[in-house]
Amino acid sequence: MSKKYVYLFKEGNADMRSLLGGKGAGLAEMSNIGLPVPPGFTITTEACNEYYESGLDFPEGMLGQVWASLKVIEDQTGKEFGSPTNPLLVSVRSGAVFSMPGMMDTVLNLGLNDTTVQALVANSQDERFAMDCYRRFIQMFSDIVMGIEHYEFENVLVNTKETLGVKYDNEIDAATMRGVVEEFKKVVKRESGREFPQDPKEQLVMAIKAVFSSWNNDRAIYYRKINNIPGHLGTAVNVQSMAFGNMGGDCGTGVAFTRNPSTGEKALYGEYLINAQGEDVVAGIRTPQPISKLKEEMPAVFQQFVDTCLLLEKHYKDMQDIEFTIERGKLYMLQTRTGKRTAPAALRIAVEMVNEGLIDKNTAVQRIDPAQLDQLLHRRIDPNASVEVLAKGLPASPGAASGKVVFSADEAEQMADDGEKVILVRMETTPDDIHGMVKAQAILTSRGGMTSHAAVVARGMGKPCICGCEAIKIDYAKEEFAVGSRVFKKGELISVDGGTGRVIAGEIPMIDPELNDDFVTMLYWADEIRTLGVRANADTPEDAEKARAFGAEGIGLTRTEHMFMAQDRLPVVQQMIMSDTLEEREAALAKLLPMQQGDFYGILKAMQGLPVTIRLLDPPLHEFLPNIEDLMVEITTLKLTNGDPEVIKKKETILKKARALHEFNPMLGHRGCRLGISNPEIYAMQVKAIFYATAQLIKEGVDAKPEVMIPLVIHAKELQVLRDQAAAIAEEIKVETGVDLPVSIGTMIEIPRAALTADEVAEYAEFFSFGTNDLTQTTLGFSRDDAEGKFMHYYIEKKILEENPFVSIDQTGVGKLVNIACELGRKARPNIKLGICGEHGGEPRSIEFCHNTGLTYVSCSPFRVPIARLAAAQAAAKERSAAGVDK
Amino acid sequence: MSKKYVYLFKEGNADMRSLLGGKGAGLAEMSNIGLPVPPGFTITTEACNEYYESGLDFPEGMLGQVWASLKVIEDQTGKEFGSPTNPLLVSVRSGAVFSMPGMMDTVLNLGLNDTTVQALVANSQDERFAMDCYRRFIQMFSDIVMGIEHYEFENVLVNTKETLGVKYDNEIDAATMRGVVEEFKKVVKRESGREFPQDPKEQLVMAIKAVFSSWNNDRAIYYRKINNIPGHLGTAVNVQSMAFGNMGGDCGTGVAFTRNPSTGEKALYGEYLINAQGEDVVAGIRTPQPISKLKEEMPAVFQQFVDTCLLLEKHYKDMQDIEFTIERGKLYMLQTRTGKRTAPAALRIAVEMVNEGLIDKNTAVQRIDPAQLDQLLHRRIDPNASVEVLAKGLPASPGAASGKVVFSADEAEQMADDGEKVILVRMETTPDDIHGMVKAQAILTSRGGMTSHAAVVARGMGKPCICGCEAIKIDYAKEEFAVGSRVFKKGELISVDGGTGRVIAGEIPMIDPELNDDFVTMLYWADEIRTLGVRANADTPEDAEKARAFGAEGIGLTRTEHMFMAQDRLPVVQQMIMSDTLEEREAALAKLLPMQQGDFYGILKAMQGLPVTIRLLDPPLHEFLPNIEDLMVEITTLKLTNGDPEVIKKKETILKKARALHEFNPMLGHRGCRLGISNPEIYAMQVKAIFYATAQLIKEGVDAKPEVMIPLVIHAKELQVLRDQAAAIAEEIKVETGVDLPVSIGTMIEIPRAALTADEVAEYAEFFSFGTNDLTQTTLGFSRDDAEGKFMHYYIEKKILEENPFVSIDQTGVGKLVNIACELGRKARPNIKLGICGEHGGEPRSIEFCHNTGLTYVSCSPFRVPIARLAAAQAAAKERSAAGVDK
């Protein structure tokens, strides 16, 4: 006996997705729970794969099983395939495991020919309907199966309507439609060199082959490539008896969601058309009716539909997106699948389903796509604002912004420097535009996809971006773009919504992100489930408070250099850097000490006893000096214009120092703990500031838990030296203040050598915090500033990298180092605290990685804390599900 | 019975070094092979360690064993310790496993007191001798054992000589010397509060304790720290009966080498003094006689000494450095150890000993210090030139150079830019001086040690350097330095010899390195022994020929960018870079193609069928454009001086491109295979050039084996794409030329991610070449250009890093990655070729690492090929010895 290649719907179920495809498994499941599904069968994905393996031959026995299954359907429907009196007509649809645009979609009404169409005329008592079915079938079959261009048929229809003097297809009468059918058959003969196939069995065989072939057409291959769908999965073929929604006033077709996909409200949401086939709803010839109207028009059918929806939701335990057809007052279910929804709807539906007892919290947290929540956490356009949408492009980077239109990067930079908010509008961007992109509020391009230069760079910068907005026609020479009949000149205001791709006229009110009740509930559940801690990165007391409000359990990274950059401090910092002697430098540091102490006091106080990881100075000192190029131009100008010699001399001194400090690769230069090694006095000042602030707070009765973090360590001895110094200072301050200070000293792991020797490093570290930004830069040899501007987009476009490794952690490379470091670190110090404070700490897939690696916490920007909490819960839930702990 | 803590010399042997220390084991060995060694015994290192463990108490039973051993010596010598008539006198010396300056060295004549000294007077019939022995003993014992400052005694001597009106100690008569002894005893009383110990046993106990204590004095600890000698080894104590070389004309003392340590000639080499103790030879009071003179003065003793030397050399199978004493015509051997020698002597001795059948080749190659050979492979001062040595400093970086003296980095840069050769002379250097160091021929500092900024930076640059030359007094204000009575002004010529530390007046003729016969023989043997291949890095046919002459077995790295920099090509390269379209760029590349083809033709031809690894373009494109700062100053100047607007515009266009290409961290930027990914046409041109050149040579009957190396790979997919492109081009050229081209394509492993995913990468690579320069930069996060100029010296000085990791490979960090990559690479492709082409390929310890890791070859600069061949042989020999393969 040959292998089983064909499954009747009643033989399958929802778990057989990989064999029957998504659609086939869904139809089988619905059939099995007793829903009214037109009978049919599915040819398996295995058959498709064997078809390719054998060099485009059907596997042995497959066709026999097809005919046998067709016989079953004939028996069930009481119709017969090719019968001149009561013909069975079928639809043929592809059905891959993952829904794939680009593959053959649907051929309806298969089985019609010059003979069977007459039976349809007789049985429906409606020649126009029958002829219309036939001409649709010829058109679809010829286009999809025989490869004849669609417009050949459209030409015939257009000419016919012109001759008749009518506008819509449905105004063509029966007799004329008969003529159209004849014309269509002529087109087929002319274009393919053969008659339109009249044998229904031949039609079916051709259609099955066409579905199989569509698995490997260029569009499908491309789609699989960009969506990482393996090519070996193959597609299934679904053959199903037709149900006609277009046989009269007691017929209809529609689509519905079991809950509102926009708000999440628990109410049927959808629309239908009386006397129509599926494609008509989309074609927009008539306006569909809201689903509630069906209650009036067909109360019994409506009730049956409502019951079915309830059943399906209960069965699938999720909101469903349903297609149905009504044939002569009888309801048929054609498809059900999990419905797509907005972020607020996703939250509301999940929360309500838990409250209804339909799902548990574990399931609920897994229902939310954290990336989708991102929209809710960015500044966005006030939903109550009335907006004039000019065009829609690809939503390449979320967030919204308003600004003046500008067409060149130079101009964007200049206007931004003059204090204007600008939107940079380009056909596409190149590395030459980076300086303008940096200064723009948002980027809008008319060409390029989600992985174009503009898209990759903007996402890297966290800036709103819309790409490939082809509706806008840019004229650089005139400095304007046209969209439809409107023209926008340089300087005119527009707004862009990077989360939806909408380009909007004028300036639009924005709202700051906030958490609604559903969101808060969901996060509360997430906190119950997750085991991974969530902290925030914050450099000011304000940020620290925001972080706490969003649920952060501590500060994972406080960057002290931002404090050095403050306007009132920079001169002191520069004085420190320009010092020729240790004494001068220490004098300047003494001035900085109370300021830093104040900084730490504020942040520690805001966190009220939650741990605050403070990173000692990290950037190279030259970052605090003026730019060399600027200085050189200034000096040249001063000299040529007889400037004050004193001023020139002073500038030259600064230039000399800046030159001496200048580095070829500052990322790999004299920074981080290397400063601590060469200039111990700088770190000494910072450590003093930390512990004086702590002593002060504890005396005031406020709990304070600083964690001193030493950056850029590559060798255990560096840490040993710096740790000893810090510990000694803490000891002195303990004695001096009489306060029992909590002392915790650790390091960042952000250079491969530290990860590779983490066992040695751990001897001197109470905690590791993975600085995955720098670790990615060094492990991949990618300078982020350079990569994202100059060559990352080639890597994404050419699929060399699946994703920007600065956005989602590179698990194979960087992840391997993190794993090595965790293992070695724990071996040397079993209770070591392990965290991550790179930006990856707020990215869901990276968070899952952190959970799986067994980190103690992730730390991310305050606004991403909710996403991190949810993603951490999902990782835990997933793990529990996999382990079977989930009930 | 208690543990054995004391070994008579005749109870020990050379293999007991760790228990008896180096000196004790040597004395035991000599005693055992029947040489005339004054009898004595050794207290073990274990006793020393237990002394510390027990809190400074002698281990139980140790003293008893000391007295018992002393008894044996009394019996052997017929003398008695403390006897008023025939007293035994002994020397007490420390003797660690490794010779350690800073520890207690020697106390002679122990056992003398007010009574025994009278016996010495009587027995020697020489009161002056006896009193001189006694005062020397008091002086040494008080200084070393009792901690009384040496100058206290020197004062007495100086005053005495003044009173007497004489100049030298030996002019002090017996009576006065008796007075000196009394004065010395008073000094002891005054300084220590106690009488000088008269009990010989007490003296011995105190001396043993002093030796034990000296193990942990500051100087010894410091010495161990900087030489990585573990503190738990402990020191032994040697107690030996005195032999007196100063008892008259039939007495004497001397030192000798069994072969000439300077040239290696097989002839006794040394000197002696009649009627003197060891210290007199060093003190330079009288001029010692050459050893050959002894033949005339004491023919029998001389013959005995010659025989002894032959015996010792034969016994130790190496050139010996010997100390001896003649007491009343009887020869005593006091010490023998392996003699230090110059590089040429080392080569000659090793080669001749193999020819004499004394050692095998395996041993011979291990006798040569590759670092020492370095001297022979640098340009050096013609040994036949007569030189005026002004001063000597620390030999901080080898090589020699002549140039004009200059005292500031700015001036060094300016003069060098004007075509002058300069020597930068500074008290010490700082990061501010880097630009001048780069341009100077050599660096000379008056302060700082072997790990000072100047030393570390110069070694990194491979530039001659002398540090800490305190004899030169620098006056920056006057722009001159004084040395003794001579003064050198700015612009005067000097020469420096970094290999010896000699500062020399004037310009001196230099000679290029060459290999003498011994060197050639040694390398020939090395090649027989080594298993690791040795290739050279060469970018021109001339370098390739030099490499072959030095024995390279192929080219491990040809850098194609140097070819792009040539004067006639740079404009074409710039034209390529400035191109706005692919067509323009391809037109420029078409012009470069024949030039590159010519380059490759030359190198491949020079190597005559040996493999040549050609690295495709590696540096970022902006390296080929003018400097941004220069352009800005030029443009500013042109504008302010009403320059030609056309010129300004052109410069601005270049500036714009340079800005667009400018990178924050070029090391981590758009370079290497990233250029191949973004601009496939560049690599395509290079690959064409390689295979056209190969085809051309093969047609001409010349064997050619190019290996195409793709740099900076981080991901298997990059290599897959670029390999496919290169292989396709090779295939096309095969078809076009009809030549069966050898195609080998591989990659550099120089970024951590490539090492971590080497199994995936190996699928597309026939070979890996470890670019350990870049791998060190990324693994340590050290930009070499910045680290060596700015902070490396802190790391070396503070001993955070043992050594500059760009000089000797960081085995713990970088080495771990290399090991991971080798393992993964071999797993995926068992026959993968593994090489290294970083500068480490020429450094002995790194070469040993490469051998142990199982690499196929190392590649280094042509001049280091001989060192690499030798070091590779040493690694193999060491491994064979360890495995017991060595006979």
TrEMBL record, chains A, B:
Signal peptide: none annotated. Substrate binds at residues 559, 615, 750, 771-774. Mg(2+) binds at residues 750, 774. SUPFAM superfamilies: Glutathione synthetase ATP-binding domain-like (SSF56059), Phosphoenolpyruvate/pyruvate domain (SSF51621), Phosphohistidine domain (SSF52009). Pfam families: PEP-utilizers, PEP-utilizers_C, PPDK_N. Residues 420-501 form the PEP-utilising enzyme mobile domain. Its cofactor is Mg(2+). Its EC number is 2.7.9.1. It comes from the Bacteria. Keywords: ATP-binding, Kinase, Magnesium, Metal-binding, Nucleotide-binding, Pyruvate, Transferase. Belongs to the PEP-utilizing enzyme family. This is Pyruvate, phosphate dikinase.
